[in-house]
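User: ok so my PI wants both of these folded by tonight, can you help

Assistant: No problem, let's get them done. Here's the first:
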Amino acid sequence: MSVFTGWRAALRIARRDALRAKGRSALVVAMIALPVLGVTAADITYRSAELSPAEQLTSRLGAADALYSDAGMGPIQQMPDGNMYDTASGEAPSEEPAPIDMRRAFPEGARALSEQPVPATVTTKYGIASVEVIEFRTSDRMARGRIDLLKGALPRSMGEMVATEPFLDSAGLHVGSEVTVTPSGKKYTITGAVELPADLKAKQLYADPGAVIAPWQAMADHDKKVPAPNAGSVQWLVEGPGRAGIGWEDVLAANKAGAVVTSRQVSENPPPDSEIPLLRSHPDYNSMDMGSEETSAALVTVVAMTILEIVLLAGPAFAVGARRSRRQLGLLGTCGGDRGQVRAVVLGGGLVLGGAGAVAGVVVGLLLTVVCRPLIEDWAGHRFGSLVIRPTELLVVAVLGLITGVLAALAPAIVAGRQSVLESLTGRRGVRRSSRVLPVTGACVLALGVLIAVLGGTSGDSTLVAGGSVVAEVGLLACIPVIVGLLGRLGRRFPLSPRMALRDAARNRGRTAPAVAAVMAAVAGSVAIATYMASNLAESDYEYTPMLAEGTISLSAGDAKAVERLPAARAAVEHNMAVTGGRADISRVWAGSDCNVYYEDESSCGSMTLVKPTGKGHTCPLADKGAKELAARLSADEHRTLMRSPACVDVRISVGTFSSDSNNIVVGDAALLTTYVKLHDPAAAAALKAGTPVLLNEAYAENGEVTLKAVHRYNPKDTENRKLHPGKARKTTDRLKVYVAKPEYATTPGIRMILPQRTAERLGLHTQPYGSVYAVSHQPTDAENQRTSATIDQAGGGLWVQSNSGPNDRGSTIQLILTLFAGVVTMGAAAITTGLAKADAEADLTTLSAVGAPPRVRRSLSGFQCLVVALTGVLLGTAAGLVPAVALRLVDLRQAMEQMRQQPMESAYTPIVLPWATIGLLAVAVPLLAGGLAAAFTRSRVALARRAG
């Protein structure tokens, strides 16, 4: 019999065996298909989310040939894509050039469509909202691809608008609603809902050119109380006169007029370098790579671990399958089959089920991506240009799944080939001593892998991190049989069912170890990603600079006239927002004429300076001489402590929330201490009441005193104050006794010193109410903001409410996709392992029934068996996942330290934060779910069983 004939028979037997045991075969296929599904969905999503150059041009140009804009620099030279340009002379213009007549820059016979934005306030269902209104003819054919109509109709008259869905949702409006542009009082009807494929979260209104800005400007010219529109610069979408579009010669001609051009034809067919004038004066522009093609270290590591995970997930499936088929394999031996043919049958099962799992995973992954595409696009914030399917990559994924099936069946095939016919027919498992070499080798490999990963982290080599992480996980896998064996010794301390489950796991290591490895591999990927992302988020939170103290909002007046409306505005805030305590009122303070009013030049108003002493405790050493030498000696923690010290905290960034100068001095009372500063010290409140300022940054105090210098300069236009203070500018220097707060209050946003009202008057300073701060239970919602804005506008306007926006989310698309994928694989692996453990333990459950155990013991034993597997795998997976996460953070730390030593004021804080919520979910919810499923699906009725032997 030839080799092919033998394999054909083995595959036929494997196929029939798979069809006969449909439940077990389905579990095996699912075990292989699940990782293939995740990789397929991740591949298609990633490829589709990356827009091609042509798709990027369509999102910017729509169906037009080019986009023209005024560079504001006079004649220019540009690169073909329009992203880089410079003046034709290479020098900045001495004075600002006049706006160009863009129509003269268009090719003869071209058709143009203008686009001009203007910020405005409009009425909503709840009140008033700020929004960007764009004058752009959305019904023109050139807008197709840039703006898509979702429902309703596009504007056809000057009294109509369309809105993006995010704006409609936040404003509580719908198609057919009316909005009023509050400055002009003109009403418009929303005729349709649109979306920007390149920005699905944009909140914008669109009207035809001349519908908003012109009537608003006309009303502002007629009524001086109406503020003039602050319209942005005009851009033009241009359609060329012929089929050739806008060529390079047209771009050069527009550059001479001062226009920057993004042309579809030029971008897709760029001219040679010799025809680009900008490269003659700036040849380095051609070598600049504006795109980032670096592969994330996290991506490299997780992909490497995912490949290992795919191999591990199928292992327990075939181990159980081969054990359940022992009698059939024994019968094959009695019919003359040799060991090679027995191995071929088991490997044939891996080939059949691996192929089925690979195909099913690719197909379901593709269908799942198609079905979930709108959800993925909404999360990503932009539409896919098209669903990009690369057959070669999907074929590689499918082949990988097929090979995985064969490799996973290899070990069970070898074990099955070694078993005697008698053992196979009787079902006896025999007793085999565990190898002592394997765990020792595994421990050494584990230590070596951790060492390589840490070395890669400290040296900044992500390849070593990936390799070391995989090596460490392989070493941990080799130690699993010994770890499982140790579980049996813990059983004596537990009741019957968990004691039997632990001893059963230790006795049947061949079944337990692969299942533990499967869960461990899935959890390791989840923990690695979650730890890395949690650490990045903590770093982002640390670097975020808030405008206000946490849990507060502020109400601010724009000018002296708006101050008169503060009582009505305060009532609006207290009525519409979640204010939890009292308010604290704040006043501005200045010397001489107010620079907010008389800002023509430096000599047209007064000034005030809170002097910072020099020396230790006052001067920031990271911004002084020898800063680089000092930075070279500091660790990351020491640098962080120094950066947060009072001497350095305001050197890098000083937030001027309540004042336009850098002093951050406000006038307030004790309510400001408790409401905003969160300084609950009776001594501080008593100091303010007695007229003593409260200093929040101790670096400005010397011997309990601060130095305040002022120049009392009055503008000739400030007639009222000029009469009271004639003559030359008066300079004063005052030493003030202050209450010095503890160092942690130096980071209070927007306030450095609180000055009592009577002290400001004694020093000859001027004050004016600025607004109020409130403690709130949550940040204002869109509806709360709009209601408050409407009430303030009805009272006359000129005031606004400010709140913290919070740190930006710096998580990448790749990391989130991999997190979702790892989470799905984790849950799937736990559920599938539950079914496999139940299938393999059927003989033990039958024995329990034979000795009279009640049904609940059968159920609880099955549940605890799976609980042991899942919990052990989760704990080992958590340890394995921390290795690459910590090593990758060491890579980030090395890069941050290098940057800090070049720029000492740059943060080197690179925390390692454990995602306790994720770890808790995996360590508690997943094992309990697995055990619960095993208990729920275990039959309580006793089934008749044939006695073996």
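One down. Here's the second:
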Amino acid sequence: MTAHTPPTPPFRDPQLPFAKRIDDLLSRLTPEEKVSFLHQFVPAVERLGIAAFRTGQEALHGVAWMGPATVFPQAVGLGATWNTDLVRRVGDAVSKEVRAMRAGDERVGLNVWSPTVNLLRHPLWGRNEEGYSEDPKLTSAIATAYTHGLRGDHPTYWRTAPVLKHWLAHNNETGRDVTSSSVRPRVLHEYDLRAFRETVEAGAVAGVMPAYNLVNGRPNHVSPYLREHLRSWTDEELLVCSDAGAPSNLVDSEHYFDTHEEATAAALVAGVDSFTDHGTDSSQIVARVEGALEQGLLTQADVDAAVRRQLSVRFRLGEFDPHHDPHAGTGEFDSPAHRALAREAAEQAIVLLRNDGVLPLAADTRIAVVGLLADECKLDWYSGTLLHRSTPLEGLYERFGAERVEFAEGVDRVLLKTSAGTFLKVPAAPAAADEARGAEGALDPALLAGRTDLPPLTTDATGTELALVDWGAGVLTLRAPDGRYLSVAEDGFLRASADQPGGWVVQETFRLEPYADADKDTHGNGHLLLHLGTGRHVCVAADGVRVAGPQEETPEVVEIVVVESGEDAVARVAAGADVVVVVAGNDPHIHGRETEDRTTLRLPDHQERLLAAARAANPRTVLALVSAYPYAIEPGAPGAVLWTAHGGQAAGTALSRVLAGDVSPAGRLPQTWYADDADLPDLLDYDVIGARQTYLYFEGTPLFPFGHGLSYASFSYADLAVRAEDGTVHVSCTVTNTGDLTADEVPQLYTRAVDPSVVRPRRELLDHRRVTLAPGARAELSFEVPLSAFGFWDVAQGRWRPESGLYEFLVGASSTDVRLRTTVTLEGEPSLPRPVRRRGLEAVDFDEQSGVEIVDRSKVSGDAVTPVAGGTGELVYRACDFGTEAGATGVTVTAAGAGTVELSLDGGPVLSTLKVAAPTPGPYDYVTVAAALSAEGVRDLHIKLRGPLRLAHVGFSG
């Protein structure tokens, strides 16, 4: 007998549409198998020949966490290029390296968790390095370019599947899993949703990741916006992947639900499809889903919908069509093209902030390069391991010759003297001790342990000279002469073992605490050395130097003996140079990182002192800031100032080429640089309109404005023309290079409503170009802007409304360096008063507020407003039409909690007071209270709230 070959199941048939194939595969999976698909680590289904799968491969600016890979500039640096073509090519290179690395390591995933499209609303946010810009238009343009590169160009199969992070209104690390972002409807639609929406609509996004925080009192992982907005923007199935541990936070830290079964069910119904929780252990999520099904909190259809979305991504990645996948075997890794692209991206990310003629440097310039980052190539939490490394010092050596470059790092070189008169000693390390953190790759680098194979510190009569750096707020690092940082491993001993500060909990930072004994004797320069990673003091034990246990050794009192101050070293080399280049900035693992917001815009004191020492010794000083975020520097700063984000593997070469004039800088600031901390709103104030945040609304004078960046060339702008027809505004102009070298220019198109009916942006980016022009060359630029771009979210009508009127069009080199302008009348819709007698008022649809925050009307949907901390708050609703003749004669409020609601018109006396006397049973138990009110005509309604009540709706009768 001849054995019959079993027929190919439909889900394996590449001739069928993906939807039919997914239907077939879903019908073959058992209910238990489907539930197992809901965890990040999906097991194989061997009976169907389906491989294991995992969501989540970090790839923000190169493949991260999986060992060596090409490292491009940080995301904020890619944003600073203002170059969508470049960023698309970077995304293309990253996706090819993902494919190449996966070919040799199945741990490398194709579902990449990037880019981050959170807007850089507040410069103190710890994760500023991960975003592209404070502007939604620029952010979406850069994110769209990156996702198109990650996706690839094939119409059917995707090279990788990008997931956008972090949905939604997420700009604080302080209490990030318990704080709520109060986001009014205008800010929601005009600001926070826009970057996500325009990127998703561009068609190269596979999903999103909700953020840890709450929005308007409701956790993002149960947000109705996933269904109401996100899934309405595209016909593609979008995979929503939870952030790590966030499903458990719904119960454990947020206490939003009583049980994990309730929480898991609510997240799944809201739209979360893949649960990232408990690492590789899926058993708890599986148990919670099964429990929710047993309790009737979920249906099989809910599970099927989530599994369908995951399978849609896997089919698009070619998993089920290995012979048809055009990306299989097409990976490219560390190629000459990728190395050149990394350098190009680093060059284009550099922003020249100020220049009095010091730059560019002549070829025979004698340079002193100084500063804590002068010989560093820093990585961040989402970097890969460096294959190549270029520091500013190395770049300057290469470009100008080592004989013309002097170096002083500017660290304080110290000995640590114990109370016994001995000094801390770093023993000699074994010859084979060179090992970079994370070089082997890790699915979760937070679990990487510190090294214990090196000898711990001891004490002796001479000690070891250590390099001490104060990174601000008293946070120190101590480095041994061989370049390794003092660190503490799990056994508690201090070792010179870390190549750099790093890790989820940094184990390489310390703080010196002034010491005083019981008699308040400070013992001169006596200090306790606190290890910040463990929160324990350093002590000297018989078996070595270690951190004290909770009830163990007495902390050691150490005296800081300064062998050489950083200022002295800097002054010495600066005095003999033609030009001093001070390289200052941040370490991405210290002060301003995931889990930690900054507290100030100021440079750390240590670096301020080095800059002052350099300038005092040599007035021809260039400040090169290498940082993940803006700084506020003194107005009298050096004549030349540059900024670049941490630029990846080619950072030093790129900086040296710009300093030398081989490349004219053309990066532009992707966010406002404020002059002082006093210019900043509270970190948790998400109302960009009310708090006048970002260049869109800021009314002060910035240190450097959004879009700012200088060039070594000069450019003239001319021939501005604007016309509107067929729903599109056509704008054209010319830009000419009037300088004597080839350079890039970034013309930027802005608009503003001249006489708006509501507060509108002072100016708003509509489009931009980055163009390369030879001397004397001219570019003719044209922009096409849909009329919808001139609309705003009208809370009176609950929709987008383009407003008729005069609009100014501005073209220039930054948001303030305007070279051309004209005014055009655009047709839209007229302003209409609120029909409050017919529709009433949703409390959240206010025009202005003070002392009020937005909260959840229910756990499922809707918004309410409440006074902050149960105090007093006020709401203003403009142009409310109460009707003519008798007008409104009664008012009702729908509220929960307890307190009073006072109504007045146009800021006059209180006309009606409504009181919820007895507290309602719970925050979601609403009652309706009525009172008399006399109002007619179109008036501004003021509502004052007193006490801990939630106001959801106001109705009128008459």
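The CA atoms of residues 336 and 425 lie 44 Å apart. Residues 84-104 form the longest helix (21 residues). Good luck tonight!
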